[in-house]
Amino acid sequence: MAEQAQFEELARQLSAVGAVKRDLARILPHDCPAGSAAVLTLLGRYGSMRMSKLAELLAVDMSVTSRHVAHVAERGWIERSPDPADKRSRILHLTPAGEATLQDLSRRSTELLTERLGDWSDEEVDQLIRLMTRLRASFGDCRTVHPRLSGSAPAEPVPGNPKATVTVASAARAPTIAPVLEQTTRTPA
After folding, report:
1. What pLDDT sits at residue 40?
2. Which residues partner with 157 through β-bridges?
3. Average pLDDT score, the chain
4. Hey, what long-range contacts does 168-171 have (CB within 8 A, 24 or more apart)?
5. Count: domains in the chain
6. Over the chain, what HEC string results?
7. Is the residue at 137 inside a domain?
8. Could you tell me the pTM of the whole model?
């Protein structure tokens, strides 16, 4: 088990992740704030879903989720269609314009990470992915398992969370706007 001083340093390092999040937020187009990027990223990663599932994945309440969804719907990036199983509910789907926007966001974040981490080895990036995935799993993040990821690399179990796995090679190829942006949509409890 790690020592007290190690946990104190870890807490300091985690609080400094805000600088990374701010840099990633700066690359977003003016009409796509972080909350909108998170909606597009989650729909791209998990596919069509109800608003309640999206709110769970965003880890925010329904009113915040509704604002984010309204913003992306106004831009034509998603469609809301009736749920065949429950006509009172809506299913959210990415549109072709939403998929194009998601690809642009992914390109922007990939370019920034490539620039900032250009002197890191592939092994170091893979290690960071594994450790961040494990950290998220330790905190009970429901987004730890990525069911839509596919690739040739085998899924690795996340230590401390036997139900969670990560496919490192696939995670690097999946369209995403960096997991840290997903965290920017949280509201205080």
Report:
1. 97
2. 165
3. 81
4. 168/126, 168/129, 168/130, 170/146, 171/129, 171/133, 171/146
5. 1
6. CCCHHHHHHHHHHHHCHHHHHHHHHHCCCCCCCHHHHHHHHHHHHHCCEEHHHHHHHHCCCHHHHHHHHHHHHHCCCEEEEEECCEEEEEEEEECHHHHHHHHHHHHHHHHHHHHHCCCCCHHHHHHHHHHHHHHHHHCCCCCCCCCCCCCCCCCEEECCEEEEEECHHHHHHCCCCHHHHHHHHCCCC
7. no
8. 0.70
pLDDT at 152 over 80: no
Structure tokens at 166: 């990560």
Kindly give the pairing relationship between strand 156-158 and strand 49-50. Answer: unpaired
Q: What amino acid occupies position 104?
A: D
Quote the crossing angle between the two packed helices 51-58 and 34-46, to the nearest 10°. 120
Q: How far apart are the first and last CA of the chain?
A: 30
Question: Which CATH number characterizes residue 30's domain?
Answer: 1.10.10.10
User: What pLDDT does residue 144 have?
Assistant: 52
